[in-house]
Amino acid sequence: MNARKAHVIGAAIAGLLLSSCGGEMPSAKAGGGATAPDFTLPSLDGKQVRLSDYKGNSVVLIDFWSTTCDPCMIEMPHLVDLYKKHKDRGFVVLAVSADGPESRAQVSSVVRSKDMVFPVLLDEETVVTARYNPKRELPFTVLISKDGSIVHKRGGYTAGDEKTLAAEVEKALAD
């Protein structure tokens, strides 16, 4: 293989790795301060989890992910670390799986292997995903302040995004 062909192939692979599973390039967007729409979803352990139950007490990070999304799997250990670091300060991660009912066993397996110690919610009908993430980018994160306002959104994952997210979480916790 000549050098030019190798360069083109390398650039194509890099582009695929940097893109989100939804087919869009990652985009960091500051939240407009809109109120986060409430929802109730079943958790993997069978409980009903309602977003509004956290309002007034917690900073909530909603992470939309899927077992088939490589960037989601790469990002997840960073979210676990971020949660473990800040959970005692009122930080909650709600990991919303966009996997369908046919892959519930795979969701359980990934949750164990990635040590996802926060609530994992099942959006098998993708109703909540569609409301928050109409482009269906994966991963897709939404940070919600204690007052219920959206303060940060990001679609996709690129190495280093976890630093920006950690700073946004620190800022939200300080408010």
Commentary on this structure:
The protein has 175 residues and is α/β, with parallel strands linked by helices. Helix content is 36%, strand content 22%. The chain is built from 5 helices and 8 strands. The chain has helices spanning 3-18, 70-86, 104-113, 127-132, 161-174, and strands spanning 27-30, 40-42, 48-50, 59-65, 91-97, 120-122, 140-144, 150-155. A 6-stranded mixed β-sheet has the order 1-8-7-4-5-6, covered by helices on one side. A two-stranded antiparallel sheet has the order 2-3. A hairpin with a 5-residue loop joins strand 2 (40-42) and strand 3. The longest helix is centred in the middle third of the chain and has 17 residues, at 70-86. Residues 2-20 and 22-31 have low confidence and may be disordered.
**Secondary structure tally: strands:** 8
- Can you list the strand order of the major beta sheet? 1-8-7-4-5-6
Determine Rg (CA atoms, Å). 17 Å
Name the overall outline.
globular
Structural class: alpha/beta
Percentage beta strand: 15-25%
* Secondary-structure element order, N to C: HEEEEHEHEHEEH
Model regions low in confidence, pLDDT < 50 over at least 5 residues: 2-20, 22-31
Largest sheet: 6 strands, mixed
* Termini separation: 55 Å
| Secondary structure: helix percent | 25-40%
What is the overall pLDDT average? 84
So how many helices? 5
